[in-house]
Amino acid sequence: MNSTPPFSALLALIEGRSAALRDAVDAAPDPTVRVPGCPDWSLTDLVTHLGGVQRFWAATVAAADDSGPLPPGQRGEQDPEGDLPGWFSESTGLLLGALRTAGPEAPCWAWWAESGAPLTAGAVARHQVQEAAVHAYDAQEAIGRPETLPAAVAVDGVSEFLTVCLGSLGAWPHRPARVAFQAIEGPSWTLDLSPAGARADPAASGEPVTSLRGTASDLVLALYRRIPLSDIRIDGDRAVADQLLAWSKMD
């Protein structure tokens, strides 16, 4: 199913989820508190990471070249300068500015060429929504106030993870399997796993061996390993669900 919001809505979601992360950091009594979803990081590390990611993609989108990644010296400033919250706000502004200037169809290198997803600024915006949303959740969890992902983020987040993230991983290393995902809100997805890789929404042929059901937010958070699989309903072969998460390892 096509659940991707319009380009303007993607930009608004990047801005909103980045602001949610900033709000969580501002509310933290100690910026060195550890982040459960990224246990090697403090909140300061989390902000530095996402700010660097946003600057990297701002520079990559501005280059308008899908032939390969930018040289290291042209990938945007990765080390914070001065006030960290201000630097992070500037990072978000640089990303949004580059995306608005480029427009959704502008060519852009990205790491997901193998998935068949477009190498465009629009596809970058789509993934950056998920990057900001999951890390905003990380920051909220770190201060003990985790929030459900917004519906517009979560529904497309399942689809984007299955098609882009899993679609970029190459051959499935286990026995071929079909997996169904059902969001309580209504949308559903089917994923085939085989030596040819992960293929979302394949032609109908055979029943899933495993079915995962939960809110769209919980499905996304489980796929990114922010919540345990025990928080969602799994019917059928649980081992396939465990293998899928171990294979993906998307942070």
From TrEMBL:
<dbReference type="Pfam" id="PF11716">
    <property type="entry name" value="MDMPI_N"/>
</dbReference>
<dbReference type="GO" id="GO:0005886">
    <property type="term" value="C:plasma membrane"/>
</dbReference>
<dbReference type="InterPro" id="IPR034660">
    <property type="entry name" value="DinB/YfiT-like"/>
</dbReference>
<dbReference type="InterPro" id="IPR024344">
    <property type="entry name" value="MDMPI_metal-binding"/>
</dbReference>
<feature type="domain" description="MDMPI C-terminal">
    <location>
        <begin position="153"/>
        <end position="242"/>
    </location>
</feature>
<dbReference type="InterPro" id="IPR017517">
    <property type="entry name" value="Maleyloyr_isom"/>
</dbReference>
<dbReference type="GO" id="GO:0046872">
    <property type="term" value="F:metal ion binding"/>
</dbReference>
<dbReference type="Pfam" id="PF07398">
    <property type="entry name" value="MDMPI_C"/>
</dbReference>
<feature type="region of interest" description="Disordered">
    <location>
        <begin position="64"/>
        <end position="84"/>
    </location>
</feature>
<feature type="domain" description="Mycothiol-dependent maleylpyruvate isomerase metal-binding">
    <location>
        <begin position="14"/>
        <end position="140"/>
    </location>
</feature>
<dbReference type="InterPro" id="IPR010872">
    <property type="entry name" value="MDMPI_C-term_domain"/>
</dbReference>
<protein>
    <submittedName>
        <fullName>Uncharacterized protein (TIGR03083 family)</fullName>
    </submittedName>
</protein>
